[in-house]
Amino acid sequence: MVKKCIICHEEAVYKIKDTLNYYCDECAKDNFSDLDLLITVEEEAQQLRQILKEKLEELEKDVNKVSKKCLQQPD
Ligand SMILES: [Zn+2]
Question: What are the pLDDT digits (tens) for 6-53?
């Protein structure tokens, strides 16, 4: 899903941290002298991928634990 700039509705490149405010390159530069306040949409996507990856790994460990337990239980 492509994020749109909240001002001109062009494709967004930047986002304010911890908000849902997206900006295209031009509007970001017009509105923010300090682009450190912003993260790029690409950075955000990478962070999300990283979080997702960690969650999946945790889940996998849990599944392994549970299936080991199941195997060990005598019936
Ligand atoms: Zn814009």
Answer: 999 999 999 998 899 999 999 999 998 888 889 999 999 999 999 999
Whether 6 is in a domain gets the answer no
Domain that holds residue 59: 14-72
Ligand 1 center to 74 CA (angstroms): 64
CA–centroid distance, 51 to ligand 1, in Å, is: 28
- With respect to residue 47, please indicate whether it lies within any of the assigned structural domains: yes
- Which residues, at least 6 apart from 31, have a Cβ–Cβ distance to it below 8 Å? 7, 23
* Total of domains in the chain: 1
